[in-house]
Structures are given as structure tokens and as C-alpha cells.
């Protein structure tokens, strides 16, 4: 996975501190992703959505990282701000171009699975939609088009 606008490099100690602060365990694929990229805009940013009539494709605007100077791109900030809106056990790991989030389950039988949280779901309707069995599968399935960011070689 190639990203642009990534945060500064992280250490395992940074991730351990995050886990302790929020009393959760990050699935290994997310730890590896954060250590490799610390978030950012992905070059492949399109994903298929099922269960949302009229909205079969989503676009990731940004994967959250740690210690990002822009609050809305920071994993900690998003976890705190959306804590009372996103169902328990889901960790927001990315945002779409709107307020919707891509989330990773961090508890229970669904731990490690990837879900889409629809911030605009009407009351009484389902706001959570399954995307993939794990983060690696989700990332592998991402596609790009002419509007996707381009990561320049250095």
C-alpha cells in the first residue's frame, strides 16, 4: 500500500502507548500498516459497498495515523470524537470524502474484520456494513481511477 501525506514514522512503543491509553488491542495487520505508513492518502482508494442502495462504491479520503498535526487525520482524535456515535468495538481507521468511516473491529467474534459506518444513516436503519474479513484483504481489494491520488516516486 502506497500513501501520500503520511505521518512521521512510528515505533512499536508508540502503538503500545496508544493501546494502553485506549485499553484496546490493535490487530496485527493494523499495527503493521501504521508502522509502514502511519496513515495517509492511499494511491488505491476505491472500495465496493454492499447494502447501501444507490451507493455501490466508496472512496477513502485518508487513513488515520498517530500524532498527525491535522486533528481530523489523527486516529486518537477520531476515536474520541466518534466514540458515542460509532458502535462499540469499532475503531475508525479511515474516512471517506464525507463523514463516513472505515472501521476495524477490535473486540469479540468480529475482531479484525473491516466495516463501513454510514454517518448519515437514518434512525432505525443499519449504519454498519461489512467490507472484508481482515485489513489485508480490504487493502488488497482497493482500486484506483482517474481521481485517485498519485504517489510520486522519490
List keywords for this structure.
23% helix; alpha+beta; 8 strands; 23% strand; globular; 6-stranded antiparallel beta sheet; 154 residues
Give your account of this protein's structure:
- The chain is of the alpha+beta class and 154 residues long.
- 23% of the residues lie in helices and 23% in strands.
- It has helices spanning 12-22, 28-37, 75-81, 135-141, and strands at residues 3-4, 41-42, 46-48, 57-63, 90-96, 101-105, 114-117, 128-132.
- The protein has a 6-stranded antiparallel sheet with strand order 3-4-5-6-7-8. A two-stranded antiparallel ribbon has the order 1-2.
- Strand 5 (90-96) and strand 6 (101-105) form a beta hairpin.
- The longest helix is centred in the N-terminal third of the chain and has 11 residues, at 12-22.
- It is globular and about 40 Å long.
- The two termini are 16 Å apart.
Q: Output the structural class.
A: alpha+beta
DSSP strand content: 15-25%
Number of strands: 8
Sheet with most strands: strand arrangement: 3-4-5-6-7-8
- Helical run tally: 4
Kindly report how far apart the N and C termini lie.
16 Å
H-E string: EHHEEEHEEEEH
Nearest-angstrom radius of gyration?
15 Å
Mean pLDDT over the full residue set:
92
- Main beta sheet strand tally, sense and closure: 6 strands, antiparallel
Q: Please mark out the parts with pLDDT under 50 across 5 or more consecutive residues, or reply none.
A: none
Amino acid at each position: 500500500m502506497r500513501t501520500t501525506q503520511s505521518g512521521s514514522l512510528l515505533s512499536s512503543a508508540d502503538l503500545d502507548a496508544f493501546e494502553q491509553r485506549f485499553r484496546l488491542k490493535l490487530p496485527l495487520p493494523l499495527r503493521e500498516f501504521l508502522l509502514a505508513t502511519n496513515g495517509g492518502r492511499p494511491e488505491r482508494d476505491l472500495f465496493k459497498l454492499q447494502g447501501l442502495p444507490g451507493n455501490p462504491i466508496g472512496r477513502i479520503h485518508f487513513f488515520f495515523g498517530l500524532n498527525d498535526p491535522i486533528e481530523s487525520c489523527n486516529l486518537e482524535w477520531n476515536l474520541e470524537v466518534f466514540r458515542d456515535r460509532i458502535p462499540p468495538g469499532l475503531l475508525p481507521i479511515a474516512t471517506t470524502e464525507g463523514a463516513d468511516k472505515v472501521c476495524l473491529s477490535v473486540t469479540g467474534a468480529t475482531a479484525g474484520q473491516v466495516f463501513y459506518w454510514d454517518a448519515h444513516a437514518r434512525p432505525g436503519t443499519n449504519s454498519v456494513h461489512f467490507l472484508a474479513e481482515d485489513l489485508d484483504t480490504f487493502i488488497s481489494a482497493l482500486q484506483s481511477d482517474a481521481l485517485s491520488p498519485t504517489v510520486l516516486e522519490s
